[in-house]
Amino acid sequence: MQILDGKLVSAAVKAQLADKVTELKALGKKVPHLAAILVGNNPASETYVASKVKSCAEIGFHSTLLRFDAKISEKHLLDNITLLNENADIDGILVQLPLPKHINEELVINTIDPSKDVDGFHPMNVGKMVAGLPAYIPATPYGIMLMLEHYNIPTKGKHAVVIGRSHIVGTPMSILLSRNANPGNCTVTLTHSQTVNLKEICLQADIIVAAIGRPNFVTADMVKEGAVVIDVGINRIEDATKKSGFRLVGDVDYNAVAPKTSFITPVPGGVGPMTIAALLKNTYHASLGQKVNMN
Ligand SMILES: Nc1nc2c(c(=O)[nH]1)N[C@@H](CN(C=O)c1ccc(C(=O)N[C@@H](CCC(=O)O)C(=O)O)cc1)CN2
């Protein structure tokens, strides 16, 4: 069994981007600039946004963080997005999810200029990705593809089972894995809460991507010997022995499942850091007016 080290791969992607920034500077060109919007004070969102801002600084990107109270009106938020859309210095915009319940997430995403939508959530980018056209690819599935590529994991002709059909992970993941590309060319089964015989389906999988948001959901009896297991879950479980009061647990019962696998991602230190690396790659491409072609 080999651990897929998201910290290591993310550091390699960031080092490449830092070199690109050096080249841009040497040519007297503008460096990429990411704007992040954080509404409210969800502790997990605070951590993720802080990590995005810190990563930008590490590689020489500019970043702007706009923080708003959880009670911000939808209109005020949309107006601020419009200002960022119109600001020529900003290359990429992200609105950290989830948003407070009174704000229509779909409306917010649809307000972001698709050419600055480095999260790849705007329907224009989703549609282009599905059609196989250059688009911004949502950061988590893009990061997983970068990880599979880095470790040269064979995917052609393999049966991939994706657990979870969210717009930001499961659905785009199923599309990218089935694409005629490397990594890709998988036969994909997209499963969800209404799937019957999930265990039997998972037992046929050469690759499992668990993105269901339920701690330790994938157990050893669901995994075939030698399977590749990618764990997208980041669940905070109360733990009085920790200073923070919680520990992070994935969607996979890691200790029981790992010995059966050929490759597995840990939590933390697996998919999470790759999400940040992929976002930075999208931002770099946005600054050059390019999108990512996964074909
Ligand atoms: N606008 C967006 N919102 C959300 C996205 C997204 O891609 N765009 N994805 C998730 C959260 N997310 C990025 O925003 C994210 C999650 C986890 C990590 C990460 O590095 N996790 C670490 C552990 C960090 C911790 O201590 O909690 C790890 O797994 O090692 C980065 C980004 C939902 N919202």
UniProtKB/TrEMBL annotation:
Chain residues that bind NADP(+): 164-166, 234
Top-level taxon in the UniProt lineage: Bacteria
Catalytic activity, as annotated: (6R)-5,10-methylene-5,6,7,8-tetrahydrofolate + NADP(+) = (6R)-5,10-methenyltetrahydrofolate + NADPH; (6R)-5,10-methenyltetrahydrofolate + H2O = (6R)-10-formyltetrahydrofolate + H(+)
HAMAP family, per database record: THF_DHG_CYH
Pathway of action: One-carbon metabolism; tetrahydrofolate interconversion
InterPro entries listed in its UniProt record: Aminoacid_DH-like_N_sf, NAD(P)-bd_dom_sf, THF_DH/CycHdrlase, THF_DH/CycHdrlase_cat_dom, THF_DH/CycHdrlase_CS, THF_DH/CycHdrlase_NAD-bd_dom
Function: Catalyzes the oxidation of 5,10-methylenetetrahydrofolate to 5,10-methenyltetrahydrofolate and then the hydrolysis of 5,10-methenyltetrahydrofolate to 10-formyltetrahydrofolate.
Matches recorded under Pfam families: THF_DHG_CYH, THF_DHG_CYH_C
Documented EC number(s): 1.5.1.5, 3.5.4.9
Record protein name field: Bifunctional protein FolD
Gene of this entry: folD
Keyword NADP among UniProt keywords: yes
Alphabetized PANTHER family for the sequence: C-1-TETRAHYDROFOLATE SYNTHASE, CYTOPLASMIC (PTHR48099:SF5), C-1-TETRAHYDROFOLATE SYNTHASE, CYTOPLASMIC-RELATED (PTHR48099)
Tetrahydrofolate dehydrogenase/cyclohydrolase NAD(P)-binding domain mapped to chain residues: 138-287
Keyword annotations of the record: Amino-acid biosynthesis, Histidine biosynthesis, Hydrolase, Methionine biosynthesis, Multifunctional enzyme, NADP, One-carbon metabolism, Oxidoreductase, Purine biosynthesis
Subunit structure: Homodimer.
